[in-house]
Amino acid sequence: MALKETISEYRRPLLGVASVVGLTLVWEIAYTYFIPLDPFFFTKPSLIGVAVKDQTLSGELWKDLAISSKAFLWGFSLAVIVGIPIGVFMGWRRRAEYVLDPFLTALYASPLVALAPLFIIIFGVGLTGKVALIFLLAVFPFIFNVFAGVKCTDRLLVNVVRAFGGKEKDIYFKVILPSILPYIVAGARIAIGRGIVGILVAEFYGASEGIGFAISRFGDTYRLPEMFAAILLLMIMAVIFTEGLRKLETILAPWKIGQEAR
Amino acid sequence: MAPCIQATNVSLTFRPKNREPVTALREFSIEVATGEFVSIVGPSGCGKSTFLNILLGLLKPDAGETRLNGTQIAGPGQERAMVFQEFGLLPWRTVLANVELGLELKGVAVAARRSRAMELIQMTGLAGFETHYPHELSGGMKQRVGLARALATDPQVLLMDEPFAALDAQTRDLMQAELLQVWDRTKKTVIFVTHSIEEAAYLSDRVLVTSARPGRIKQIIKVQLPRPRDYEMRLSAKFNEIKAEIWNALKEELLGRGAGNGT
């Protein structure tokens, strides 16, 4: 009975782990015994595991990951700092919306990675070029989510703050900012994905270090287990950022927890 | 003595884009004495809420003037505070922080506003709920926060825009009784907008019945019932006479125009 209860309580993590482990096993067994794919083109979990061990123990991948993370954090932080104020401004000031909207919509809709070669010409293959590309890709989800959030701000609350003597500044900080927090987090989720695309593209194009460079180097030399090890690490990094964001939301917006549960 | 609130020939027409202009108020005039409890009762859409928003300073009338203690009302001010029908609590603030809002905007120091807010939390029966968020409260509790928040800055005039309309009947009765107690202790001038004849009769010194849109004062009914009032009073013959009087004034307006929507 007690076991049954424990199982039902932890159903979510148990099933999640089981599905990952199960798929890995199926892949391993199928590749080893049933479908003899050419190891030149394809690999299996046990070999990837060995590669992860070797690469991380030698410190090679950590170094690459650290280099890419640094670029990511810079680009992402700039996107937050620039994107949120632009979104708020566009959402709250009709004229700003009309002036900025054509440019931003066009840029958001375009495949901005096409600009990667230009960025590398301008900023070089180092940190600056990567940061610029990551920023450009990550800033739009912030702008547009925040813009949508500001548009959904409850007018009653704006009136309440005005009625109690609030100035324009108070409306920004006591009404708009807290009410767009969930929109910022939603924007950040999309921005993480786009930012990682930014890292990879920048490092594929022109770089001598970083996780994207490692992936492309291993791929070029047909070292598939090592390549997958690098991809795996990148995936883990993305998951950590996304989960960290969820945690951050519960800390910053405790009033949301109960609302969502209802 | 100069009236606390004086509105003279106030008119306001809304001109929404792509739609017919709507005249909410036409030459609307009232006077309210200091410490008086006045209700405004009228058909839906007769501009009652609009009038409160003008007194609050959120809306400017096209014509006419509104004065508080003889001074023209130019915008929101600390002498007036509103209790909103839909509560208008900030969902990201606890009960305590919501009650503190007006004091915070006024620039009162943290310690002082905390102790003042706690005082009102006690008075409005919210003790023990200080750290709750609005979504954890029932409608009645939410409006207690709305009332405490309005009283926190110690305004002279309390504007109440159908404050109990969103509550169930029993909670409403309870809140009415509590409002009378709070009013008795704080001696505020109250302008109370409602659809309920019973509520208006029970709470008020005077009931102003307005005409259908555009709203004007149609009749003023003095409620000559002793105070403090209790629930049993609602069963008395005198109370029912007053209700009938209000109803008679209102009847033609309701029948004449049919029910509108929104206020």
Tell me what the structure shows.
- The complex is a heterodimer of chains A (262) and B (263).
- Chain A is mainly α.
- Chain A contains twelve helices and no strands.
- Chain A has helices at residues 2-9, 11-34, 45-58, 60-92, 94-109, 116-123, 127-151, 155-163, 168-205, 211-220, 224-252, 254-261.
- Chain A is flat, with a radius of gyration of 23 Å.
- Chain B is an alpha/beta fold and 263 residues long.
- In chain B, 36% of the residues lie in helices and 23% in strands.
- Chain B has helices spanning 48-56, 95-106, 110-123, 139-152, 169-186, 197-203, 237-257; strands at residues 5-14, 22-32, 37-41, 63-68, 71-72, 80-83, 157-161, 189-194, 206-210, 217-222.
- In chain B, the strands form two sheets. Chain B has a six-stranded mixed β-sheet, sandwiched between helices. A four-stranded antiparallel β-sheet of chain B has the order 2-1-4-5, with helices on one face.
- In chain B, a hairpin with a 2-residue loop joins strand 4 (63-68) and strand 5.
- The model of chain B is unreliable at 258-263 (pLDDT under 50).
- Chain A binds chain B through residues 156-157, 159-166, 170, 174-175, 178-179, 181, 253-255, 258-259, 262, and chain B through 56-58, 76-78, 81-82, 84, 86, 88, 90-93, 101-102, 105-106, 133-136, 149, 153.
